[in-house]
Amino acid sequence: MSDILENTIEELRLDKSKWKLTKFGDVAIQQKGKIDRDNTTLTRYIKGEHMGSEDLHIRKWGDLTDEYLGPAFIRKFEKGDILYGSRRTYLRKVGIADFDGITSNTTLVIKANEEKIDKRLLPFIMMSEGFTENSIKNSKGSVNPYINWKDIAKYEFLLPPKDQQAQLAKLLWAMDEVVERENETLNKLKDAYYTSINQFMIHGNYGSGGEIIKTKCGLLDKRIDVIKLKDCLLEKPTYGANASSKPFEDGSLRYIRITDIDDEGNLIKEDKVTIDSKDYSQYLLRNQDFLFARTGNTVGKTLLYDSKMENSVFAGYLIRFRVNPKKLNPKFLFYFTKSLKYETFKRKMIKVGAQPNINSEEYQSMILPNFAIQIQQELIDKLDFMKSNIDSLKSKISSSKALQKSLINQVF
Q1: Tens of pLDDT along 334-367?
Q2: Hey, which end of the chain has fewer CB within 10 Å, N or C?
Q3: CA 401 to each of CA 93, 184, 390: distance values in angstroms, whole numbers, following the listed order
Q4: What is the pTM of this model?
Q5: What residue stretches are annotated with the Type I restriction modification DNA specificity domain (predicted)?
Q6: Under the phi-then-psi rule, with left for phi > 0, alpha for psi from -120 to 50, and beta for the rest, what region is 6?
Q7: Which of 102, 228, 74, 85 is nearest to 147 (CA)?
Q8: Are 190 and 178 in contact (CB under 8 A)?
């Protein structure tokens, strides 16, 4: 279906000669309904953090019993309303509510004026480059910039006649459906991937028929021994450089910080920096070096460095481990750190205080299933295959989203 849509978009030739320059405020209505939280049957609320960037679907929300909400949460929204994050509008937080609820007064609640516009089209106008640029340009404040309704209402764009609106809305939502179906498949693949990791860390390659016992590494097949990470190292772990960073230039070393590693253990490509020091030789990374984040809200993040990556050094909030490949395959260690066993280890080790922390000695005390190298490789091969399917689908979803964005901006 995505191929058909792609061909349709390529063949789309829009004659805008009969389109009318229209103000956003003429086709959209701001909803200002307030509620008394002490006297309401509404149970769910939406914060700005519940809304995804460039995602029309509300996938998260809170319950009024979850936490204290400040007095700003008085705005009522109804199913079908469009929610727009008026702060930091460059994030493009536009979501369509699929239930009645409450939000704060910094989230604009918008309905379509259905006398003038097909309501299915309005959210895509709000996702367009022109609408976003207008919001950014007219935002006020520097630390937490925001935009007022009156400035949004003044935004002008070309609006097609009603019959064309329906056709365009149908095409745009068909494209959205493609992305949603791909996301559903991705979630299923991820579930299978993480389920497999956890099963392998309990059963190894024995399958699920063996006797399970409680060990220092949690539940394990009785036939599996355990080993400490400390006993699998070539040398003592090394803490990263305390040097500051400077803008990255072609040919320079990359300076890897905690913020450069995502939750899945990938090296983020954007916002690269280099080290602002000439004394960095002891921090140079080599193939199969393993990094653990040691402090902050991201404590426990991991990265397996590969020589195919850029030449790099690592920063002070990271610890480098060099694993003995005759005892522990670094890739197997990487997959272990994606398991529930590792999550349990982190919770036990994180110190209560101003900053969560796991030091070098504590990481070395981590206990893993002690599989033969050949078995480790068998499990790695299976997980690599699953991960490659996930990565391929992620790439396909990125292409679909790019196509969707292209279509939106072609229309508006």
Answers
A1: 999 999 999 999 999 886 666 788 999 999 999 9
A2: N
A3: 15, 15, 16
A4: 0.81
A5: 17-190, 249-394
A6: alpha
A7: 85
A8: no
